[in-house]
């Protein structure tokens, strides 16, 4: 089974959201639905980036690595280099 690290972007908030999941489509639907949490603040989240991993632990490590950058420029560089 594949696991994914993904980056969403909201134009309304001008923010990125980094997460991991085993099903991106289902996860994005949840982000866009009525729920509690950071992504509930906007309904215009768009998938900007994804990476595939073969283990959940590897995807979680990568998610934490990207989150620890705490740098918008590095996140945007990662997104732009993937295009």
Automatic annotation (TrEMBL):
InterPro entries hit by this protein: GIY-YIG_endonuc, GIY-YIG_endonuc_sf, UPF0213_domain
Which superkingdom does the taxonomy of this entry point to? Bacteria
Residues in GIY-YIG domain copies: 1-77
Against Pfam families, the record matches this protein to: GIY-YIG
Q: Which family does it belong to?
A: Belongs to the UPF0213 family.
Task: Kindly provide the name given to this protein in its UniProt entry.
Answer: GIY-YIG nuclease family protein
Q: What is the lineage of its organism?
A: Bacteria, Pseudomonadati, Bacteroidota, Flavobacteriia, Flavobacteriales
